[in-house]
Amino acid sequence: MTVSAHAEDKVSEFRVGRQPGLIYLPLYVMEDQNLLAKNCERLGIAPANLRLVNLGSASAISETLLSGSVDAVSGAITPLLTLWDKTRGAQKVKAIASLSNSVLYLNSNDPKLQSLRDFTDQDRIALSGVGFSMQSTLLQMAAVRLSAKVRKSGSTR
Fold it and tell me: Are 87 and 93 in contact (CB under 8 A)?
């Protein structure tokens, strides 16, 4: 069997950065069932244990990867694309596969706010990773789309 130079390196632990959340369930299963080590052995590679590193935001995940504190990260597509764009030609960050798909909701404790159209300049939306996280990017896209509709129709309804 031929393995790549990287695969031949003796690594006892493979560190993966991730945020808390249900979308990371596959990583928990991998860790619980020791699937990384089992598959390494099956491929004839020295077994490595999976260690999940908890991080608080998409920017923290990217920074941890770039610093070498973890070997891989798991996260949303928008931080990946930002990281890939900013590291082209340097670290050459690449994606492996999609982990999961989830629905995003905009929640409010104000009953008058039923959609983005209902927000005024007096309302605020709290976000982590502004300009970097998936939620931030999708909210910006929705706001631009709504703004274009308002300009076209002259109404927010």
Answer: yes
